[in-house]
Amino acid sequence: MNETRPLIVHSIHHLVIGGTENGLVNLINRLPADRYRHAIVCADDYSDFRQRIRDPDVAVYAMHKHDLGQGQLYRKLFRLFRTLRPDVVHTRGMSGLDSLLPAMLAGVSVRVHGEHGWDVNDIEGRNWRQRRLRRLHRPLVSHYVCVSKHLERYLVERVAVTPEKITQIYNGVDTLRFAPRGDGARPLAALWGDGSRFIVGTVGRLQPVKNQRTLIEGVAALVDRHPNLRSQIGVAIIGDGAERQRLEEGVRAAGLQDLVKFLGARDDVADLLPDLDLFVLPSLAEGISNTILEAMASGVATIATRVGGNPELIEDGLTGRLVPPGDSEAIAQGIFDHFTDHEMVRRHGRSARQAAVQRFSLERMIDGYASLYDGLLERRTHSPMRASASS
């Protein structure tokens, strides 16, 4: 193997199950191994999720940020970057900002910062402290990459980044792994007995920003108005997290135990999604939702909240429906409309699959990042400062 391949060090908060983390693993696994090397720096720690990285030579480093002071963290990162001598440091999210100054001091000239969305403490990107931090770190960033037009506008309007320094690349979905099932089998539907129910599902970490509570409230309102639906629909909540106990208590309080099933974190989401008649994403904030993309690629109609990059994925009335965040009544109506119009379900599902293949394929995402890295490295090679230093 030619060890002149450029080394890209990816700086992330932690390497666990999550949308940003899944995108990073897909990127490392799919970028040509004969063109790039990779390492990952976690501000916090990593889990066995790292085993999804196919190349055993990809090193993962945990900084354990919460055990360190800021100066200690900077020194630890500086020493690591001086040892690794990366060609590119690609930081992601707020935690990634900590890597920018040590990378610059260690002589890394290409420093890419990625924005992937908001957390529950800043669901609309309005937190002035976080905006100030982003502005303070702006001189340390060579180039920005973001996963949606919504985030691109945020960087320009709120962080004052010049548009020329931003590349927007949508997350990609593996349209071979996530695809409609052709055999007609529906093992997930069997959870409700006869397997004939209209199955509504959601996938995501059980945390406040994902707001599965609104889906539960919408289902409660729906069966309260239409009691006959209690025996005709089922709701699958796939994922785990700190909100699970509270959500289960809400299901019991609403008397929905016979409708709503908690499936926990699953490794077979690609097998489960084609079983759904309707996918619902009730989140309060999103960058670009991988789960929407996976549902689309699986040929499933979708209801999603009109937040973040969701309107860039879902064409209202064509591939699904967009609803206001926190509006359980709108979700209830959306479920009912799809339940009573099976042709609309099929039409939305077909259009969603087509959009996923044409606009949001994993290959398209990989090509975008490869072009970004190649262009920045080429620019570095021909920069006047580098040329004079090498002469």
What string, H for helix and E for strand, traces the elements in order?
A: EHEEHEHHEHEHEEHEHEHEHEHEHHHH
CATH level-four homologous superfamily name of the largest domain: Glycogen Phosphorylase B
- Average predicted confidence as pLDDT: 91
Total count of strands: 13
**How many helical elements?**
15
N-C termini distance: 28 Å
Q: Which structural class do you get from the secondary structure elements?
A: alpha/beta
Q: Indicate the percent of residues in helices.
A: 25-40%
> Low-confidence runs (pLDDT<50, min 5 residues)?
387-391
Report the portion of residues in β strands.
15-25%
CATH level 1 name of the largest domain: Alpha Beta
Any idea what the CATH architecture of the largest domain is? Answer: 3-Layer(aba) Sandwich
Cα Rg: 22 Å
User: How is the CATH topology of the largest domain named?
Assistant: Rossmann fold
What topology, given as strand order, has the largest sheet? 3-2-1-4-5-6-7
Q: What kind of sheet is the major sheet?
A: 7 strands, parallel
Tell me the overall shape.
Answer: elongated
Question: What is the chains' assembly state?
Answer: single chain
Count of domains: 2
